[in-house]
Amino acid sequence: MKKTIVVLTGAGVSAESGIATFRGSGGLWNGYSIEDVATPQGWHANPEMVLEFYNERRKDAAKAEPNAAHRALAKLEKAYDVQVITQNVDDLHERGGSTNVLHLHGILRQVRSTTHPNLVYDIGDKAIKLGDTCEKGGQLRPHIVWFGEAVPMIERAVRIASKADIFIVIGTSLVVYPAASLIHYVPKFAPKYLVDPNIGGVDGVSNLTIFQKKATEGVTELVDKLLGEV
Ligand code: APR
Fold first, then answer.
1. Catalytic annotation on 184?
2. pLDDT for 84-126, tens place per residue?
3. DSSP string, 141-189
4. Choosing from 105, 116, 143, 184, which is the catalytic residue?
5. 197 preceded by a cis bond (ω within 30 of 0)
6. Domains of the chain by range and CATH?
7. Rounded to two decimals, what is the model's pTM?
8. Pocket of ligand 1 (CB under 6 A)
9. 4-33: per-residue pLDDT in tens?
10. Cα(78) to centroid of ligand 1, in Å?
């Protein structure tokens, strides 16, 4: 039977595709403060600005290409059951070839109705503006989990993490909860790997091997090692 590898990724895995990380930029995110564009309060105060911000991010993500780290993770599927859990809202894992991707914090290319949250639409790289509505007339908003909002996918993610034979963490500062707590649900005996040029947030984690490297280099190396073990 194939072993299960669970991979938790953050902004660092997409950094070398040209998508800015969140906390690497002095509290500003592409020139915006996170509170203004990634909270329900920000949305109520200035929905136009929030829509514009995500329109730009959506366009940037559509132009970006998967990098060697995304592609290496897809290669792992040759020998393992692989489940990617990502905090990223881009679709670079999918375009890099991964087939099981759970988005904890939403998806840039999707929008949903503010009045009927079950109405979710795929809009590709298109922009939305005030006045763009669902079929029932409710304003559309980004299908993104903002700070202060529930993370509906977390229970599924916890179940997945608790069944990992091998767990890999790539490019996340591990400061945003509940995502950062996932590693603590992984079985104690399971080998764990961390790929990140800056190490933190992994105190007390058992069986941990650290690749203190950028994703393209560290993930490629790790994937070669894991494929060599089967
Ligand atoms: N390769 C690997 N890791 C990298 C690279 C790289 N080339 N460049 C930077 N990193 C690492 C940084 O060292 C840091 O640990 O990526 C991490 C990025 O951390 P954050 O910017 O905090 O991003 P992330 O952990 O994904 O943020 C979590 O916070 O803003 C919210 O909802 C948003 O999903 C996001 C969540």
1. no
2. 999 999 999 999 999 999 999 999 999 999 999 999 999 999 9
3. EEEE--TTS--TTHHHHHHHHTT-SEEEEES--S-STTGGGGGGGS-TT
4. 105
5. no
6. 1-19+66-105+151-230 (3.40.50.1220), 22-63+110-144 (3.30.1600.10)
7. 0.97
8. 10-12, 15-16, 21-24, 87, 105, 171-173, 176, 196-198, 214-215
9. 999 999 999 999 999 988 877 665 677 889
10. 27
Instruction: List pLDDT tens digits, range 211-229.
Output: 999 999 999 999 999 999 9
- Token pair in block for residue 150: 């529930």
Distance CA 120, CA 64 (A): 24
Cα 95 → chain centroid: 14
Q: Which residues are CB-contacts of 146 (< 8 A; sequence separation ≥ 6)?
A: 38, 39, 40, 42, 43
| Residue 207, φ and ψ in degrees, nearest 5 | 55, 40
